[in-house]
Write a structure and sequence with these properties.
Number of helices: 2
Shape: elongated
Strand order of the largest sheet: 4-3-2-1-9-8-5
Structural class: alpha+beta
Distance between the termini: 128 Å
Oligomer: single chain
Number of strands: 9
Largest sheet: 7 strands, antiparallel
Radius of gyration: 29 Å
Length: about 210
């Protein structure tokens, strides 16, 4: 072996030795990273459970009636979550409302039927619908401006925003218009019924006198 090749051979041997001795450090870094990821996941799960406990007073979700009537509109897309109305980061997780999923929406005269494959279905009675609008974010999910259909509805003593994204975004504007028309109609009917009841009460009292 020449004088030139001897240093090269020594350098190659040292390089191989260094590679071998680096393995324990590399394994340690990988194990540490995996433990960190597991810790973050565990903390997220604990936070999710804690939030669900705080929302334990939310009543069970309504189920769809057996005969809701003919469909006025239908939509296939994704459910992106629910929050306290007007607070797009205040996620609601109770009763499975925090689980993102595929969704099939059907609007009838009875209300809005929300069918979620692999997650909890629920029904929003027409009388509980409050508002529909287009927005860009809900429950930490941000899309393009007007990319989400947001439906505001009442449940128990709470107002809820639920966000949906149609597979055909262009149809969401029609949903907003139709939902708000339904809400206006229900509101007018409720007002008329209340006025009719008040008139009947006054008439009855007058007759009694």
């Amino acid at each position: 072996m020449t004088r030139l090749t001897q240093p090269l051979a020594v350098l190659a041997a040292e390089q191989k030795s260094a590679d071998v001795t680096d393995w324990p450090d590399r394994i340690g870094w990988i194990v540490g990273l995996l433990l960190f990821i597991a810790l973050v996941y565990w903390l997220m799960r604990q936070g999710w459970t804690w939030r669900g406990t705080l929302q334990g007073d939310l009543p069970p979700l309504p189920a769809a009636p057996s005969a809701p009537g003919p469909a006025r509109l239908e939509l296939s897309g994704r459910y992106h979550g629910s929050t306290t109305a007007g607070q797009w980061l205040d996620r609601i997780v109770a009763h499975g409302l925090g689980t993102r999923s595929r969704v099939e929406l059907t609007l009838t005269d009875a209300g809005l039927d929300v069918v979620r494959p692999g997650a909890t279905d629920f029904f929003i009675p027409g009388a509980q619908l409050r508002e529909a609008r287009l927005d860009k974010g809900i429950a930490g999910k941000v899309l393009t401006e007007g990319g989400l259909l947001i439906v505001t509805w009442g449940h128990g003593d709470k107002l809820i925003d639920s966000g949906f994204r149609s597979d055909h975004a262009a149809e969401q504007a029609e949903w907003v218009e139709t939902l708000n028309n339904v809400i206006d109609t229900n509101s007018t009917s409720s007002t008329n019924n209340t006025s009719s009841m008040n008139s009947t009460t006054i008439t009855t009292e007058g007759t009694a006198r």
